[in-house]
Amino acid sequence: MKKILLSLAMVAMVSSVVVGATRAYLSDTETSMGNTINAGTLNLKVDNVESTAVAHVVVDNVRPSFQWIGPEYSHLWVIKNDGSVPGTVTYTIKNVKNWENGCNDPEIKAGDLTCGTGSDQGELGSQFKLLFQINQFGYNHDIYPVVEGASTTPIMHHLNAGETKNVYLRSWWINAANNNLAQGDKLEFDIEFKLNQDHP
Fold first, then answer.
1. pLDDT tens digits for 57-81?
2. Residue 186: inside a domain, yes or no?
3. Residues 6+ apart with CB under 8 A from 169
4. CA distances from 197 to 87, 108, 153, 159 (A)
5. Which residue range is the domain that position 135 belongs to?
6. What angle do CA 186, 53, 46 make, to 5 degrees?
7. Which one of 132, 151, 158, 187 counts the least CB within 10 Å of its CB?
8. How far apart are CA 178 and CA 141, in angstroms?
9. Would you tell me how many other CB atoms lie within 10 Å of the CB of residue 91?
């Protein structure tokens, strides 16, 4: 009986060696060296400054229907993508302040009831329109009225790496039936520019 068991054990051991041998494969290993992956960059500069992308605008002493453009344009900003990948530029209106500056007789007759000194009591922002222009070609990207958080479609698409474009702001007090409500008022706001990665 011991001989039979010993024989079976030998057969099992030989079989496992044969099965193990039949499962072996040829192999070779090589190592690829010196691979480098660099992340792209987006870096927005406004008027050659990158510490802030916020422009402050003050609207004062304007009149209805006449474009508020100063000598030629009311404001000009030089926008540059100082990074390595293309991006799309958007903007948001922030920190809107509508100063009433008291009420004169035409304002009171027009029904102006605020007449205080708070930064939310004026009416000029509700009657003012902004119009952006890129590189002086065509008009687009208009905002009306000027309110907190206002934004629109991207101000420019595909600003390539190293590319610079001029953003002009033209704006005016619209001709409305209740223009007298905003007599003597002053409007202030910030424009925050943002550069976002272009989608493939």
1. 888 888 887 766 544 446 888 999 9
2. yes
3. 57, 73, 74, 75, 76, 77, 130, 131, 132, 133, 191
4. 4, 50, 15, 10
5. 54-75+86-155+168-191
6. 105
7. 158
8. 25
9. 26
Q: How many residues does the chain have?
A: 200
The rounded distance, in Å, linking the Cα atoms of 98 and 93 is 13
Nearest to 44, CA basis, from 193, 169, 149:
193
Both structure tokens of 177: 């039936």
Specify if 47 maps to a domain: no
Domain count of the fold of the chain: 1
Determine, yes or no, domain membership for 27: no
Phi, psi of 88 (to 5 degrees): -115, 135
The pLDDT value recorded for residue 168 is 85
| 16 secondary structure, DSSP code | H
In the chain, how many H helices and how many E strands? 2, 10
Q: Which two tokens stand for residue 65?
A: 């229907």
Instruction: Assess if residue 115 is contained within a domain.
Output: yes
Q: Which of 87, 113, 88 is nearest to 100 (CA)?
A: 113
- Where residue 110 falls among pLDDT bands split at 50, 70, 90? very high
Give the pair of three-digit tokens for residue 129.
């329109």
Residue 79's contacts (CB-CB under 8 Å, 6 or more residues apart) are 44, 45, 46, 89, 156, 159, 164, 165, 166, 167, 193
Other C-beta atoms lying within 10 Å of the C-beta of residue 161: 15
Residue 78: which of 152, 2, 166 has the closest Cα? 166
